[in-house]
Design goal:
Strand content: over 45%
Radius of gyration: 22 Å
Helix content: under 10%
Largest sheet: 6 strands, mixed
Shape: globular
Number of helices: 3
Distance between the termini: 23 Å
Structural class: mainly beta
Length: 482
């Protein structure tokens, strides 16, 4: 890269790099991996290629935080080796030392990931993906790969990846939820090393326009404290807005099988840019929270978005729970308390038109008196991103949002049918190059990237039904330390 291009890249990166979302220190990032909480720290690992701003040999990057908003970058945790690239996976705290890799006094933290043998793939070998483990005995700071890898060999399936492991207390065993081409396999193990197949799910349910990836099996509660099981499954391509998206199923799990309560295909996010999201393990029981983070991009254009020294960001952390509409159960994705604690008052509220500082804003529309509104983010060069909200349709329009010519699909208008019957609260988070919209505390969520050539300077609400009640901004301190 010559000096002038490098300077231009730095300038653009300065304009688009988020202030309160996680981004890599440099170069390429995709799926969040191996997220766990331990002794006051949230650990985030992620698919990382430190040598280029496009996808390449995958590593596990690593960062820690005490609040999921302010992050400290740590050295790369896992590097590729002779068995392959380090693809997506999960991590657990083995409190009872079932694996024998630590002790009761110093339980091992065990990462479970997919090895991807690129040479074998290029040679057409079907069994190029296997499951392996690594462990840490120093609170996740350093990692040692298990000498007996892989712990789960490939039975002869081309796409065989992304293990999400959790402890199933009733049977005292570990459950691995694994993406297998166009469906899910559940495996069990007493020790994280020896695995046996329990069941399969999804061959005839859900969206099948692409490969299934990055699953997560969860137990979630509703507002009355009643719990059900949920299964998150990302798919690429084949999402409603094109390219990547995350579907989910609600049902029950008995330690062997997941049984859905209906055949409906449901989507976690109605925007184009929330993919491969999973949840943190080992959260304190007293919190009773299920915390989620997604990759804020889409495989249709992730490698060509107009940032250069870095690529991709994560969504805001979200708390998942259940709610019902007319007897049907859905997942609610709410911004965590830590997100709101990070924001400070920015300006006086005029009701329908408010200034934005540095392309950063949190906009709250509450005490909603009507059922129709259009929210418009705009700048001084007539670029705008608009969101139309009614009880019949939610529509986002990126066609005049700024830079869109890097991909033929990016400027599309996206329309969704609401899953709610009334509008009580609307929250919008703008962070330079992303917009996240939460309706009714996350009953419906829309996440979309934007790349205005100048920062959006105003937020307006068109129509008399709704008014801006609060405008806040991120704190001035950077959200990541290097």
């Amino acid at each position: 890269m010559n000096k002038s291009i490098e300077q231009s890249a730095k300038c653009i990166d300065c304009q688009y790099r988020p202030a309160f979302h996680f981004t890599p220190p440099a170069n390429w990032m995709n799926d969040p991996n191996g997220m766990f909480y331990y002794e006051g720290e949230y650990h985030l690992f992620y698919q990382y290629y430190p040598d280029s701003n496009v996808w390449g040999p995958m590593h596990w990057g690593h960062a820690i935080s005490t609040d999921m908003m302010n992050w400290e970058h740590l050295p790369i945790a896992l590097y590729p080796d002779s068995l392959g690239y380090i693809f997506s996976g999960s991590a657990v705290v083995d409190h009872e030392n079932t694996s024998g890799l630590g002790s009761i006094e110093n339980p091992p933290i065990v990462a479970i990931f997919t090895y991807h043998d690129m040479q074998a793939e290029k040679a057409g070998e079907v069994k190029h993906q296997t499951q392996a483990i690594a462990f840490s005995l120093d609170k996740g700071r350093t990692w040692e790969k298990y000498t007996g890898n892989p712990v789960l060999d490939n039975p002869g399936i081309w796409d065989f990846r992304d293990p999400k492991v959790s402890w199933y207390e009733q049977d005292k065993k570990w459950i691995m939820t694994l993406a297998v081409k166009d469906h899910i396999r559940f495996y069990s193990s007493p020790n994280l090393i020896d695995w046996q197949l329990e069941s399969e799910f999804g061959k005839e349910l859900g969206a099948h326009g692409g490969v299934w990836e990055c699953p997560d099996l969860l137990r979630l509660k509703d507002e009355n404290g009643l719990s059900k099981w949920a299964l998150l499954v990302s798919i690429n391509p084949g999402a409603p807005k094109g390219g990547s998206g995350t579907q989910y199923f609600i049902g029950s799990f008995n330690g062997k099988e997941f049984i859905p309560e209906d055949s409906t295909t449901k989507w976690l996010d109605f925007g184009a840019d929330n993919y491969a999201g999973v949840t943190w393990s080992n959260l304190p029981n007293e919190e009773e929270r299920t915390l989620f983070l997604g990759w804020m991009s889409n495989w249709e254009y992730a490698q060509v978005v107009p940032t250069y020294s870095w690529r991709s960001a994560m969504t805001l952390p979200r708390a998942l729970s259940l709610f019902e509409i007319e007897g049907r159960t859905f997942i609610k994705s709410s911004p965590t308390d830590e997100v709101n604690n990070y924001l400070i008052e920015q300006s006086e509220v005029s009701g329908t038109q408010n200034n934005i500082k540095d392309g950063l804003a949190y906009v709250l529309l509450t005490e909603v008196e009507g059922s129709t509104a259009e929210i418009v983010l705009s700048n001084g060069v007539k670029e705008e991103f608009s969101i139309f909200i009614s009880l019949d349709e939610i529509r986002t329009d990126r066609s005049r949002s700024g830079q869109i010519d890097f991909n033929s699909e990016f400027g599309n208008i996206h329309s969704s049918k609401p899953t709610f019957s009334q509008i009580n609260k609307i929250e919008l988070f703008l962070d330079r190059s992303s917009v996240e919209l939460f309706i009714n505390d996350g009953e419906m969520v829309i996440t979309e990237l934007v790349f205005p050539t100048q920062p959006y300077a105003k937020v307006g609400v068109l129509g008399a039904d709704m008014k801006v009640m609060s405008v806040k901004a991120a704190m001035d301190n950077p959200n990541v330390s290097f």
